[in-house]
């Protein structure tokens, strides 16, 4: 009987893995929301560089703005953040900003001052090691009357179907316990169960980073690449903060995710009439719609047009091929990449950006590396500037340019801003990229590609296999 039993298990494993990879997407995934005129939109950035003495310098704006938005809310706060914890891994940096505590305190204090305020925090179950620990700050939020939603990731398709097929047949049904840990927590203090690590191997995530609040008679939204994660507090990041109808689209997109976990977000108050800004338009994008917008922007670029990318991970084959074709058409393409060298005190292998950078350079694309010392160049940004003086386009948000982030596997949110290049937000985004691209001894922000042109054939093979199979964290 053993051959039959083994065969049946293998067939069930493969069938479940295939089903988890192709099962229907939940409603609300991969949506391109309507374009809306915007009265007020601001580009924000957290930047680091090194002065002539080699000392790190920081300018941070994103979480200061987020705390200010929470501090003026009276009726509703909906926050969706991937990493929301004080885990530091193996990081030894002594100047980490306690972002998770600051954000927790701001939410609790605003709820104390305005008891009628409805506040909901949506996050990824990685923050509890998938049920293996009970973080104090989440207990504090719940005690203050703030809703905490840990996203039901089983609703998503499998990023790593080879493992997820087996996971859904067995380990998933064992649950987890925050009191039975016996293995070291690789992300922070305490001990966790084996079940926590078995969950982790699915590599699914709610990777969104968004905030929606009421603001006076209207609504404000913020979409970013930044996490309220202490060990991420030195990272470079970008954000757009905006008001108006697009903020209600953002709220609607979060309502869907909260409903998966049985939480009903309140309906918004009607939007007060406002003036419209001529030409400036904002569009909310989630999951696969981000990929489609990126591809469309790149494919629309021709001779003399400029494409600038600043991205933590670049590995999506469709995006890479589109960039190479845009360069062949005469577009000026510049790509600023993280070295993929550091992850919270642990050394990484340079995948995928080192081999991808070499591929881009061979196609005639200009590539530079962010200058980092332990932190990450964590932005996810594309800026398109037409040669004929037409409408510029900016896409930024939570989504790295990878298969997992763009092909409806993770939950992601980005925004697309269209308008004249001299409009404030687009002008600020352009200036941000130029500051990062051009480096000087007094302000070292990036390094030439040749400084780290060390990709091997083995790295190239590993990257392609990991991207195609899902056996990766990018």
Description:
The chain is an alpha+beta fold. It has two domains: 29-260, Endonuclease Chain A (Endonuclease, Chain A, 2-Layer Sandwich), CATH 3.30.870.10; 284-469, Endonuclease, Chain A (2-Layer Sandwich), CATH 3.30.870. Helix content is 32%, strand content 22%. It has helices at residues 2-22, 62-72, 99-113, 136-143, 161-169, 194-200, 245-260, 288-299, 317-328, 353-362, 403-406, 424-437, 457-469, and strands at 36-37, 41-50, 56-59, 76-81, 118-123, 147-150, 183-184, 191-192, 209-215, 218-224, 237-243, 281-286, 306-311, 332-337, 342-343, 346-347, 366-370, 380-385, 392-397, 413-419, 446-448. Strands 1-12-20-19-18-13-14-17-21 form a nine-stranded mixed beta sheet, sandwiched between helices. An eight-stranded mixed beta sheet has the order 3-2-11-10-9-4-5-6, with helices on both faces. Helix 9 links the parallel strand 13 (306-311) and strand 14. Helix 1 packs across helix 5 (161-169). It starts with a helix and ends in a 5-residue tail after the last helix.
CATH topology title of the largest domain: Endonuclease, Chain A
Percent in helix: 25-40%
Sketch the major β-sheet.
9 strands, mixed
**CATH architectural label of the largest domain:** 2-Layer Sandwich
Compute the separation of the termini in Å: 41 Å
Number of domains: 2
Q: What is the CATH level 1 assignment of the largest domain?
A: Alpha Beta
Strand order of the largest sheet: 1-12-20-19-18-13-14-17-21
Number of helices: 13
Poorly predicted spans: none
The outline comes out as globular
């Amino acid at each position: 009987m053993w051959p039959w039993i083994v065969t049946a298990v293998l067939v069930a494993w493969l069938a479940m893995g295939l089903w988890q990879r192709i099962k229907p997407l939940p409603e609300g995934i991969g949506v391109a929301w309507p374009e809306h005129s915007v009265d007020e939109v601001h580009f924000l950035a957290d930047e680091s560089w090194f002065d002539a003495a080699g000392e790190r310098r920081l300018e941070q704006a994103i979480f200061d703005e987020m705390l200010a938005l929470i501090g003026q809310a009276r009726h509703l706060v909906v926050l969706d953040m991937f990493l929301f914890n004080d885990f530091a891994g193996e990081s030894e940096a002594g100047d980490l900003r306690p972002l998770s505590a600051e954000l927790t305190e701001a939410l609790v204090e605003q709820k104390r001052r305005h008891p009628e305020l409805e506040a909901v925090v949506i996050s990824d179950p990685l923050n509890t090691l998938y049920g293996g620990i009970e973080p104090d700050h989440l207990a504090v939020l719940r005690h203050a009357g703030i809703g905490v939603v840990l996203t039901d990731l089983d609703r998503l398709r499998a990023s790593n179907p080879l493992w997820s097929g087996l996971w859904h047949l067995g380990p998933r049904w064992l649950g987890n316990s925050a009191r039975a840990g016996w293995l070291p927590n690789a992300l922070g203090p305490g001990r966790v169960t084996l079940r926590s690590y078995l969950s982790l191997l699915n590599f699914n995530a709610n990777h969104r980073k968004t905030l929606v609040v009421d603001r006076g008679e209207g609504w404000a939204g913020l979409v970013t690449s930044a996490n309220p994660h202490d060990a991420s507090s030195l990272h470079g990041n970008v954000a757009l903060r905006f008001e108006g109808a697009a903020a209600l689209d953002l709220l609607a997109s979060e309502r869907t995710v909260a409903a998966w976990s049985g939480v009903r977000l309140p309906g918004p108050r009607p939007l007060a009439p406002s003036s419209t800004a001529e030409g400036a338009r904002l569009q909310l994008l989630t999951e696969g719609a981000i990929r489609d917008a990126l591809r469309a922007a790149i494919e629309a670029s021709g001779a003399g047009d400029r494409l600038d990318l600043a991205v933590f991970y670049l590995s999506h084959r469709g995006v890479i091929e589109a960039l190479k074709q845009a360069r062949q058409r005469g577009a000026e393409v510049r790509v600023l990449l993280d070295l993929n060298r550091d992850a919270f005190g642990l050394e990484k292998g340079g995948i995928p950006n080192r081999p991808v950078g070499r591929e881009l350079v061979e196609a005639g694309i200009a590539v530079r590396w962010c200058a980092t010392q332990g932190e990450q160049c964590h932005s996810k940004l594309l800026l398109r500037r037409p040669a004929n003086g037409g409408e510029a386009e900016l896409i930024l948000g939570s989504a790295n340019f990878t298969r997992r982030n763009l092909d409806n596997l993770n939950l992601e949110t980005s925004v697309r801003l269209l308008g004249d290049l001299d409009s404030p937000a687009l002008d600020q985004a352009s200036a941000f990229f130029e500051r990062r691209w051009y480096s000087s001894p007094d302000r070292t922000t990036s390094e030439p590609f040749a400084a780290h042109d060390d990709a091997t054939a083995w790295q190239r093979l590993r990257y392609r296999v990991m991207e195609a199979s899902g056996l990766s964290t990018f």
